[in-house]
Amino acid sequence: MHTRLLPPDGSKVSEIGFGAWAIGGEWGPQNDEDSLQTLHAAIDRGVNFIDTAAGYGDGHSEMLIAKVLRDRSEQIFVATKTPPAAGPWPPSPYCRWQDRYSAAYLRDNLHQRLTNLGVERIDLLQLHTWTRGWNDDPQPLLVLRQLRDEGKINLIGVSTPEHDQDCVVQLMRNGLVDVVQVIFNLFNQDAAAQILPVAAETGTGVIVRVALDEGSLSGKYAGDHVFGEDDFRSRYFAGDRMQRTADRVAEIRADMDALGLSDDYSMADVALKFVLARPEVSTVVAGMRTVKQVHQNTRTSQLRDLPDEAITRLRRHNWRRGIWYAGK
User: Fold this and answer.
1) What pLDDT shows up at residue 325?
2) 206-235 mean pLDDT
């Protein structure tokens, strides 16, 4: 497993990180013993970066991670997230930070994160979403800075709202965040316009999520695939979205064949390598819920980088599909 530096403190993190949403729930049935085996397998394969959140099973993902941390001697970097208090998701322009991320709320939530993970300091605490409406009065981030000064947090981050990822550019330039977590994949390449260059300019760490587009860019789902009601992807791929996505995946596969990549790379390999081609990216969080998925995702790090010709050609798959979370 190759490692990369995570600015600004220069932590060495595995370039493939463990996405822990599925082990908390909402991706269909999941057995805790399977989850624990999966976490151990990932660490055995060199993964030392785990990304979780309060909302992943109401802290269940964090508590599973805590069990594994107690059994391992390796130094594991754990990033978690604090959601805003009850209200619209993502926050609307009319939401007040005082109602969603008050100082008292942030302190109480951080205490719960520390308790669930069984640690005295969080390696990286990210606000799970944000709104541009708070950029000129970013008090929640100043509260996190105080908590960092108190030794309860090492790094401060924001996970971008899907509908307005560029809202973090101002935060980066103002030195208010150490790390941003962004969506960047073959279908959604918007981060290449400003977020990634500004991260390089400001020395901000970058974590990429949804690199496999919630599994579609693994190439394993046909257009008629139906997800169970207890899997959030039944909503993400609602209506005709799965068929439309599968058609686009077929076009990527055709490019892989034309570029001579298909013999050595899986579809998931190509999707992950496309993201890792950007030097600003410190780690790509890939969801893992089985040992098999651990082996599939971690093997990518062992493969040679995609040639420049392939990266250039694959950029054509950028898909301006709008915000699916808002409805069909």
Assistant:
1) 63
2) 94
What does the pLDDT read at residue 323?
74
Which one, of 34, 26, 88, 98, lies nearest residue 58 by Cα? 26
Domains of the chain: 3-326 (3.20.20.100)
pLDDT band at 327 (very low <50, low <70, confident <90, very high): low
Q: 256 in helix, strand or coil?
A: helix
Alpha-helical (H) ranges within the chain are: 32-44, 60-71, 97-100, 103-117, 139-149, 168-173, 195-202, 233-236, 241-258, 267-276, 291-298, 308-314
For 76, the token pair is: 């594991």
Q: Which string of b and e fits 2-31 if b means at least 16 CB within 10 Å?
A: ebbebbeeebebbbbbbbbbbbbbebeebe
Q: How many CB atoms lie within 10 A of CB 56?
A: 24
Quick: pLDDT tens for 26-55. 888 899 999 999 999 999 999 999 999 999
DSSP 306: P
- Per-residue pLDDT reduced to its tens digit, 66-98: 999 999 999 999 999 999 999 999 999 999 999
Predicted pLDDT at 236: 92
Return phi, psi of residue 112, to 5°: -70, -40
Q: Is 12 left (phi over 0), alpha (psi -120 to 50) or beta?
A: beta
Is residue 17 within 8 Å of 212, Cβ to Cβ? no
* Residue 253, CA distances (Å) to 8, 171, 294 in order: 37, 37, 22
b or e along 189-226 (b: 16 or more beta carbons within 10 Å of the residue's beta carbon)? bbbeeebbebbeebebbbbbbbbbbbbbbbbebeeeee
In this structure, the strands spanning 122-127 and 16-19 are unpaired
What residues have CB less than 8 Å from 97, skipping those under 6 apart? Answer: 134, 137, 138, 139, 140
Question: Which pLDDT score is estimated for 322?
Answer: 78
